[in-house]
Design brief:
The complex is a heteropentamer.
Chain B: H1 2-29, H2 33-59, H3 62-91
Chain D: H1 2-16, H2 18-23, H3 27-52, H4 56-77
Helix pairs in contact in D: 1-3, 3-4
Chain E: H1 2-24, H2 28-49, E1 51-52, E2 55-56, H3 58-90
Antiparallel strand pairs in E: 1-2
Helix pairs in contact in E: 1-2, 2-3
The chains are: A mainly alpha, B mainly alpha, C mainly alpha, D mainly alpha, E mainly alpha.
């Protein structure tokens, strides 16, 4: 029975992705993509990766959808110049070959499981019991630091390009009870995931994405307007994550002589502190990426 | 006692799943957007509530009850709000028969 | 038929500074209302956290800041009047709502199985419930009850989409309104005023 | 075993509304289909969590429920920004 | 092992679909969408191959997790650039 479940789920993933990519209706593509994200998250749960599934649900199905919807009406559809049939057939053939080769290569690749033994061997000294969090913030913390830097670079790019501000419609009276429950719920879940990320699935990335979802509800409901002051606060919080992470890296260098090697026995406190700041900073960054940070009017400068 | 809970839980879950199936069927078969919204706001929320209740019975632990209750509240609330917002947007197109 | 280009229906009711002599007082009252809302939310979050992490006292290092942030986010939302609910009314309303939701689900399932019997339409409804919480609860409850869906709220006029336009629907709406009035301890005299 | 079958049925319910997402005809229909699929995934996770005896899936279901609300809201709120 | 094979097929199917769409479509939004689908497909492939005897390797999980977060930032940047290109084409 669970095999039938897997087959149906895999079929659903490919079907919704094809639906999303195969139509020129904006809402249909984006709704299809959001549903694809949900189903992919479900299949990641089946593949035993609930940490990734949580992130995919929060980001792939939630925030990317909102981001695409923001831009959907601003990007004009391309002139409907259909490429000739022969081209499409050739491309389709290449795509099928690519898929087949990829599936074959991945399936027959030797399953040299090198990492799991290493990770479980040293999990005890990482300060946390969730192996994914241990990899992210202890064993490979340097990578994570650079990834936060990448996020920040994307934020700066968006700040320079300065797309227009999204303008949600006025949504009326029933938005208030919705926001009153969903927004605190997002904050609660962010804290919950952050705390339990040390032992079971969860962590700073998922928590940040969910907190960003709460902020998005405030924006879309028209309750919070991005004033220049709020914007500069947001930028500051966004930078704070990178700054605290970098300072932590340098101070571990000073304390233990190795970059991001936490002092003995205190690893959990260090990880939790960095993660807490990262949560806030990721939430601020994702929210600002959505809002697009418009340039100020000239007379305002 | 546990077998009673098991049976009750399975029955509730079955009912909930059938409500979800019927809601999907309703989205297929009901004639216009506003009628389809009824399937979203009622059958779906009630179906999820029954499934959550059944899961709580099968699990038999009080702390999972809290998580499941929150799930139900959130889904019902979002169903109601989004249903209302779609109906509202649809109505202001001026097709009040 | 698309739902683009919807004209805004709701006018934000903000007291203008020139016509309101007690602007200062009002502003303070409103801000204190928001503060009360934030404190209430924070308390609820703390209780929830206690329910999730009761076996781990160290978890409060994250729980307390989380409750503060959750409360602070609620400061963005406009305040509403303090609740004066009657506990007995709450129980009664909960029973009424649960039965109503189940009946609603059965009803819409029945209609999905035989859509030919359907005669949908709109019912205008003037409510006596006061503005704010009670009226919003009324709108939400309508949507969860059998065969009805709130499509528009304009002051005290609600436009309700119903799957069945008979008198039974109107009776159900009147019963629901009475239930909510009891829940908020409003007697009929107050409601007409 | 029964629970596995029920999980399968829930997945069927999740996928069953999706043709509406493709054929529409209005944007509202597509949003309704997406919202139904969101509820369906929450339900699937709950049933799977009961079948697999892993309560971590309930937390995942809670995250899905919250985010389904946010993306549904985004669909409705960002409709008019076409101009 | 068979269930991994199913997901490997789904992941490579997604990659193929995204490749086809990227090559044949000129619409900016659909291209960004295809990139996202491509990334998701690769994520599924990665995790399906990282599964071994009922356990999933933590290192690829961590990579994919950060990859998803970076992907949303890249999507935002691409969309901002696409909007800019569109508005300049108008002038």
């Amino acid at each position: 029975m669970s095999l039938a479940f897997d087959i149906l789920l895999a079929f659903g993933v490919v079907f919704t992705a094809a639906a999303a990519l195969g139509t020129h209706d904006r809402v249909a593509s984006i709704a299809g993509f959001v549903v694809t994200g949900l189903l992919v998250a479900l299949s990641l749960v089946r593949l035993g990766a609930p940490d990734v599934a949580l992130a995919e649900a929060a980001i792939g199905a939630g925030l990317t959808g909102a981001l695409l919807l923001r831009s959907a009406w601003r990007l004009k559809p391309a002139e409907s110049r259909v490429s000739p049939a022969i081209d499409r057939i050739i491309v389709a053939l290449i795509a099928v070959c690519l898929s087949g080769a990829l599936a074959w290569a991945v399936y027959t690749a030797p399953g040299a499981a090198l990492y799991p033994a290493l990770v479980s061997e040293r999990l005890a000294e990482s300060g946390v019991t969730n192996p994914v969090t241990a990899v992210l913030l202890n064993f490979r913390a340097w990578d994570t630091l650079l990834e936060i830097a990448v996020l920040f670079v994307a934020l700066i790019l968006v700040r320079i390009v300065a797309p227009a501000h999204p303008q949600p419609v006025v949504l009326g009276e029933l938005m208030l009870p919705f926001a009153r429950i969903v927004v605190p719920m997002c904050a609660f879940l962010a804290g919950h995931l952050l705390w339990q990320g040390a032992s079971v699935p969860g962590g700073a990335f998922q928590a940040g994405a969910i907190l960003a979802g709460g902020l998005l509800v405030l924006m879309l409901g028209g309750f919070a307007v991005l004033t220049p002051r709020l914007l500069s606060w947001g930028m500051m919080v966004a930078l704070l994550g990178l700054a605290v992470f970098a300072v932590a890296a340098l101070s571990t260098e000073a304390l233990t002589g190795t970059l991001l090697l936490y002092p003995d026995g205190a690893a959990k406190i260090w990880i939790l502190m960095i993660e807490a700041v990262l949560t806030l900073s990721i939430a601020a960054m994702l929210c600002l990426l959505f809002c697009g940070m418009p340039r100020r009017p000239l007379n305002d400068v | 006692m546990t077998t009673v809970l098991q049976v009750v839980g399975l029955t509730l879950t079955t009912f909930g799943v059938s409500f979800l199936l019927i809601a999907a069927l309703g989205v297929w078969r009901l004639p216009d957007v506003l009628s389809r919204l009824h399937a979203l706001t009622k059958a779906d929320s009630a179906g999820l509530a029954l499934i959550a209740l059944g899961a709580a019975c099968l699990k038999g632990r009080p702390d999972s009850l809290l998580v499941l209750g929150l799930c139900v509240v959130l889904v019902a609330l979002s169903g109601v709000t989004i249903g209302h917002l779609i109906a509202r947007a649809h109505l202001s197109e001026g097709d009040l028969e | 038929m698309t739902i683009h280009d919807v004209p805004p229906i709701d006018r934000q009711q903000t007291p203008s500074a020139t016509t309101e002599p007690h602007q200062e007082v009002l502003a303070v009252a409103r801000s204190s209302g928001r503060l009360r809302g934030a404190i209430t939310t924070g308390t609820v979050l703390v209780v929830l956290w206690a329910g999730f992490h009761w076996n781990d006292p160290t978890s409060w290092t994250v729980g307390v800041p989380m409750a503060l942030i959750g409360g602070a986010l609620v400061l963005f939302l406009p305040a509403s009047a303090p609740l004066q609910l009657s506990p007995l009314g709450m129980l009664r309303f909960a029973k009424f709502a649960i039965i109503g939701i189940l009946r609603g689900a059965v009803d819409v399932s029945w209609h999905s199985l035989s859509p030919r019997t359907l005669q949908p339409g709109f019912i205008p409804w003037r409510t006596h419930l006061p503005k704010g919480g009670p009226r919003r609860l009324f709108a939400v409850a309508i949507t969860l009850l059998p065969g009805t869906l709130t499509a528009r709220i304009e002051d005290d006029m609600l436009t309700i989409h119903a799957l069945d336009l008979s008198d039974a629907t109107r009776d159900a709406l009147a019963a629901l309104e009475a239930h909510i009035a009891k829940l908020y301890r409003l007697d009929h005299k107050e409601m007409v005023l | 075993m029964i629970l596995n079958f029920l999980a399968f049925c829930t997945l069927v319910a999740t996928l069953a509304a999706l043709p509406r997402l493709i054929i529409g005809p209005t944007a509202a229909d597509r949003i309704i289909a997406a919202q139904l699929a969101g509820t369906g995934t929450v339900a699937t996770l709950i049933v799977l969590g009961t079948a697999d005896k892993t309560p971590a899936l309930f937390d995942a279901a809670l995250v899905f429920a919250t985010l389904a609300a946010v993306s549904g809201l985004a669909f409705v709120a960002l409709q008019r920004t076409r101009l | 092992m068979t269930s991994e094979l199913i997901y490997i097929c789904a992941g490579s199917g997604l990659v193929g679909l995204a490749f086809y769409r990227l090559a044949t479509c000129r619409d900016m939004l659909l291209r960004v969408l295809s990139l996202n689908v491509l990334a998701v497909g690769i994520a599924i492939l990665f995790l399906a191959s990282a599964r071994n005897a009922g356990m999933t390797d933590a290192v690829p999980q961590a990579f994919i997790l950060t990859g998803i977060v970076v992907l949303v930032a890249v999507t935002a940047a691409l969309l901002a650039l696409a909007e800019q290109i569109d508005s300049q084409r108008d002038e």
